[in-house]
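Q: Give me the 3D complex with pyridoxal-5'-phosphate.
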Amino acid sequence: MDPSQLRNLPKMDALLALPALADSGLPHAVLLQAARAELEALRAGEGPLPDPDALSAAVLRRALRAMTPGLGRVVNATGVVLHTNLGRAPLANAALEAMAGAGGYCALEYDLDTGRRGDRGGRIEALLRDLTGAEGALVVGNNAAAVLLALTALAQGKGVALSRGELVEIGGSFRMPDIMAQSGAELVEVGTTNRTRQADYRAAVEAGKVQYLLKVHTSNYKLVGYTQETSLSELVGLGRAYGLSVLYDLGGGLLLPPRLLGLSEGTPSVAEAVRAGADLVCFSGDKLLGGPQAGILVGRKWAVDLLKAHPMVRALRPGKETLAALEATLQLYQDPAQARRDIPTLAMLSAPLEELEGRAKALAQALEPVCGAGCALAVEPGESEAGGGALPGVSLPTALVTLAPAALTPEKLEAALRAGPTPVVGLLRRGKVALDVRTLRPGDEEAVCRAVAAAL
Ligand SMILES: *Cc1c(COP(=O)(O)O)cnc(C)c1O
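A: Here is the predicted complex, encoded as structure tokens.
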């Protein structure tokens, strides 16, 4: 602001006394902080001095934002189903209802039959055993915690063989060598980046350095070209021959047979990993399972019992809302058709192209009156992604609604769609804004229309 105008800025008391603020009913401390921030921004900015109405409206907007939860609804029009930055799996309605129910008092560790202390998580563990065929199950806060707990409780001070092709980094901070070091297990790197044979593991085992065999699913990248991977079954075979246990960090947590979702037969599932003989399998609750953030461990009873007895388990345990949402999600899996329909992640991943095309056409039609001559609309083919470190390289053909605004750059439109009360996150694609209908939730179409109307 022009320094000569600075003295025309209203005094704080006068600003807060303006009716829009004084009568807003918002807490004084919030209004004060918003007013300070607005005045600060004006001093630092280039613009002219706003009139009192505009100034008080700007302060009010800041104050309201400070009073609104930041984790409210966002429309995901990116087509990335498990968008980690947008909260990964959206929950099924049954899971949302269960969370709300558990938010008050609930029988978290209470047996309603006997009136005594009950087993926390016992019902979920039983469901997980039924759904995966495993002998034991345990739930912790996320999969990173599950891997850390498994390595700490089982392999501290012991050698753990891992292929150099599976030394993964997931989302920046989860790096397998670091987790291994933190757990106190000794990483024994095996094979090369692109090829690891069974013989490589055998050589490490014969050298006497290895007590556990670890397999990590390369959930966010794919090795192509001159590659070789030792399968879980081969590792289990080797483990049996030498009396070693096999741990598998599966990442994704697919609980249905892949063909039910239209995925290729080779997509690893939890039940398949248990059947193949892994002693412990861990995976996320909020990836392909489609539930809340959680880390799930299933496997042999002896292994799960050792984890449960470890002091760290208490530090990693999830809250009651998470357990409630996870139980409700797992209950849907008891009927695979119902799971596919009612768990949004599964419904989105398996949505047929014709359905997506129909929804894109309907959205384009709804947008037509909003756009008028101000913006060219089209329905175009595109590709969605599973995202969230799941199904790398799997292409999901989809239908996009594209917008080419007349008076705005696409970058400005894309940013404006994110700025409203219900932010819409789309894509910039070939000089247009693209909205992928695959990841829209019920009711999102109206929010998109409102956001586009406000932006144009
Ligand atoms: C996603 C993933 C993790 C981390 O899981 P979070 O639930 O995000 O903690 C660990 N390992 C693999 C293989 C993964 O795909």
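A quick observation: The chain has a mean pLDDT of 94.
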